[in-house]
Amino acid sequence: AKRIAFEARGDIYTMPAEHGDVRNLTQSSGARDESPAWSPDGKWIAYVSDKSGDDEVYRVDQMGKEEEKKLTSTGHFKTYLTWSPKSDKLAYTTEENALYLIDKEGGAPKLVAKNEHREISSYSWSPDGAWIAYDFSTPSKASAIFSSFSSRRI
After folding, report:
1. Average pLDDT, consecutive stretches of 10 residues, N- to C-terminus, the chain (154 residues)
2. How far, CA to CA in Å, does 103 sit from each of 4, 53, 61, 68, 87?
3. CB-based burial, 13-29: b 16+ in 10 Å, e otherwise
C-alpha cells in the first residue's frame, strides 16, 4: 500500500502514498484508458483501453518500463476488472451481461456466465482463487448467488 493506481485524463497513473514520483503508465494520446486494477502480487496493473478502436483489456508492469500487453480482442465493452488472489487471472464483465475470465498472459476469454435479465456487477474470488462467486438474476428476476470453479485451464 505504498502506491495507488488511478485514471486521469484518459491515462493510467500510479502515485506514492507519501513521497516519490507520479508515473504515467500509458501515455496514450487519443485513447481512453480506464478502470485500473492492481494485481495482488504488486507486479501488474490491468486496465481497459479503446486504443485499438474497441474496449480491450491490457496489462502493464507497475513501473511502466515494459511494453504493455493486450490481453483481449473481443470488442465488447468491459468493466469491473478484478484480479484473482494469485495474480494469474482476471475477471471482467461485458455489455452483453456476461462474466469472463482471462489468463494474465491473454488468450481466449472463458465465459463463466451470461445473464439474460441484467448485468453481473458483483463478483468475488475465493481466497485460493479456485472459485468465483457472482450475482445472477434468475428468470423470475430474483437475485441469486452462483459460483464457478475457476482453476480449470482457461
Report:
1. 90 92 90 95 95 94 91 89 96 93 94 87 91 82 68 48
2. 23, 22, 15, 15, 9
3. bbeeeeeeeebebbebe
Angle CA 62–107–100, to nearest 5? 85
Residue count of the chain = 154
Q: d(Cα 49, Cα 34) in Å, to the nearest integer?
A: 6
The strand pairing partners of 87, in sequence order, are: none
The rounded distance, in Å, linking the Cα atoms of 23 and 16 is: 9
C-alpha cell recorded at residue 90 = 482476471
Cβ-based burial of 83 (10 A; exposed 0-12, middle 13-18, buried ≥19): buried
83-to-35, 40, 106, 125 alpha-carbon distances in Å: 12, 7, 13, 8
The distance in angstroms from the start CA to the end CA of the chain is 30
Task: Give all strands of the β-sheet with 143-149 in edge-to-edge order.
Answer: 123-125, 131-137, 143-149
